[in-house]
Design goal:
The chain is mostly helical. It has helices at residues 8-21, 23-35, 41-53, 61-96, 103-124, 130-133, 135-140, 145-170, 175-220. Helix 2 (23-35) packs antiparallel against helix 3. The chain is elongated, with a radius of gyration of 30 Å. The termini are far apart.
Length: 247
C-alpha cells in the first residue's frame, strides 16, 4: 500500500460502499448526496456505471440507475418534508430578515414558483446545486406530493441514466463525465453569482435613493410652530386670552 487514492477520497469511499452493499449502496450514496450536496453525484453515478462494467460486477447499469433513482426520490421527499415543516409563513418571516430582501420580492418569487413550480422541479433535478434544494420550496408551498414525486422521478431518472450509463460506456475514462459536470456546475455558480450581484446593486441603489429622498423631505419640512410666511406671531393664528377685550 502506497497510500495513494485511486478515485479520490470521495470516490474511494463510494467504491467501498458499493463493494459492501452492491447496487443498494448506490441508492444510499445518492440519498446522502441529496441531503448533503457537497457529496457529488457527478462522481458517484459514473463510478456506479464503471463498477457495473467490470467483469466481476455484482449488478448491471440498469440496476444501478434504478437504485440511484430510488435514492434521489427518497432524499427529495425528505427535503420536501423539511419545507412543509417550515411552512409558508415561517419561511417568509425568515427570508424577510435577510439584508436587502423585501417582502414584496418574496411574494413575487412565491407567485412565480406557484405558476411554474412543476417545470422548475422537473428541470431543476438536472441542474447542479439546485438538484436537491428545489425540493424545499416545493414543500414550503405544499406542491401536490404525488406530482412532485412523479416529476422528481422523471428528472432524476434522466440525470442518473446519463451519468451511470456514461460511466458504463467510458469505463476508465469515466472522469470525462466528472469534468463535463464540473464545467456545468461552474457555469451555474457564475450565473447565480451574477444574479446575486445584480440584485444587491439594484436593492442598494433603491435603498440609497429612498434614504436620500427621506432626508430631503425632512430638511424641507416647515417647523410646526412657524406660520406659512415664516412669522411665528402671525395674527391670523393668534388667539387673545380670555379677558383681553375691554368693554
Amino acid at each position: 500500500m502506497d497510500g495513494t487514492s485511486t478515485f479520490g477520497v470521495i470516490g474511494d469511499w463510494a467504491v467501498a460502499v458499493m463493494n459492501w452493499l452492491g447496487a443498494p449502496g448506490i441508492g444510499l450514496l445518492v440519498l446522502a448526496e441529496n441531503l448533503f450536496p457537497p457529496i457529488p453525484s457527478e462522481v458517484i453515478l459514473p463510478l456506479g456505471g464503471f463498477a457495473a462494467a467490470s467483469p466481476n460486477a455484482a449488478f448491471g447499469w440498469i440496476e444501478a440507475v434504478l437504485w440511484a433513482t430510488a435514492g434521489s426520490v427518497i432524499g427529495a421527499y425528505l427535503l420536501y418534508g423539511l419545507g412543509a415543516w417550515l411552512g409558508h409563513d415561517r419561511t417568509v418571516k425568515l427570508l424577510s430578515m435577510l439584508p436587502l430582501v423585501d417582502v414584496d420580492d418574496i411574494d413575487r418569487t412565491i407567485k412565480w414558483f406557484n405558476k411554474y413550480g412543476y417545470w422548475t422541479v422537473l428541470f431543476g433535478r438536472m441542474i447542479p446545486i439546485f438538484r436537491s434544494l428545489i425540493s424545499i420550496p416545493a414543500g414550503v408551498e405544499r406542491m401536490s406530493w404525488w406530482r412532485f414525486g412523479l416529476l422528481t422521478l422523471i428528472g432524476s431518472s434522466v440525470w442518473n441514466t446519463i451519468f451511470v450509463y456514461g460511466g458504463f460506456v467510458l469505463g476508465e475514462n469515466w472522469t470525462a463525465l466528472e469534468s463535463a459536470a464540473g464545467w456545468l456546475q461552474r457555469i451555474v455558480i457564475a450565473v447565480v453569482v451574477l444574479v446575486v450581484v445584480v440584485y444587491v446593486v439594484i436593492k442598494t441603489r433603491k435603498w440609497l435613493r429612498q434614504r436620500r429622498e427621506g432626508k430631503d423631505q425632512t430638511e424641507n419640512r416647515p417647523h410646526p410652530e412657524a406660520a406659512v410666511d415664516g412669522n411665528p406671531f402671525d395674527t391670523n393664528d393668534f388667539v387673545e386670552p380670555d379677558g383681553g377685550n375691554k368693554q
